[in-house]
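mind reviewing both lines:
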Amino acid sequence: MSSAPTAQLERLLNYLAQDPDNPQLLSDVAHLEYLAGQNDQAWIHADKASAMETSPALAHTIKGLLASDRGAMQEASGYFADALHRGENDPYILFRYAQALALSEKFAEAEMPAREAAKNPERAPDAEALLVRVLHYLGNIEDAIVIAETAIAAGRESARLHSMLTTLYIDNSDFEKCAQACERALQLNPDDPEALAAHGIMALNELKGEAALADFQRSISSQPSNGRAHLGEGLSFMLSGDLGRAAESMTHATERMPQHIGTHHALAWCHILNKNADAAEKALNTAYELNHNFGETHGGLAIVAIMRGQLDAAKKYAQQAIRLDNEGVSARFAQVLIQQACGHPARAQQMMDHLLTQPILAGGQSVKQAVATYLAQQI
């Protein structure tokens, strides 16, 4: 801390000694202490000021910053909300408030303060990227793309914005733009984990398993918590037939993305391909608990029933899967098995072994290839 702010803090502390219950003085002292890294003292003074009837917004702001800095995001968002209620409107504080909400998975609440903060990129330079992420989580893909593209066009490009666009373009099925965004993101940061994962997804869609695997493993090395990269790694192993490593990677993915239904579907398929009905059923039941209305879940349960020779149950699951999604790979596969195994339940497993490697689907893909490419689109 420079000598001028140090002198200012000392002066304010002298004033505070003469007027210890002045909420504005307490808040100003807490602010300078926070800037000086004196967090314990800053908390004491801000907390005292915030408890007063006429507490300034600054006292609540400092408490929010301190809570946020120590990772207590839900607590921080409450303090920031109190500060805003008392008139705080600094774009940077709006950004920190939105960030705390987003990290508490309160994305709907985070959108408005993130939008307000993003209006002033000079004061809150990370707000646009945060807004893009929030909108993505809310499913507003088109809006998120516009925000990111507008920022880049205005000269505020970054590897982070380009890499977020790679995922958005994939979710929007725009692979041409995704390729361009990947190229630029990796030019700016060759180790960008999101861009590497997106690059791997595109390779996986083209059945380039080795290239995809290299991208996913680089992504994981750069960001071990990247659930999409772990899932992509698992799908790459699945495509090559290494089901043991595939299951391991997909298990890591479910741990990092427990709410992502497609990850549980991928793990279930891995167990199906490995002829482990019990493990597949467990993964599918987890998916079902998250959402009852995914056709892929019911289709997977149909396949599990076929593996056990339970054709009546399989038919019911398959019918429900078709009603929910008549393009799902598991439903289509289950239908083929049911048709061929009808009246011969003991032959179901034998037929599955044969069909897993045969080009039974449109385009000449085997089920194994179709599963890998289909699930890649769900990452």
Observations:
- Confidence is low (pLDDT under 50) at residues 358-364.
- Residues 13 and 72 are 28 Å apart (CA to CA).
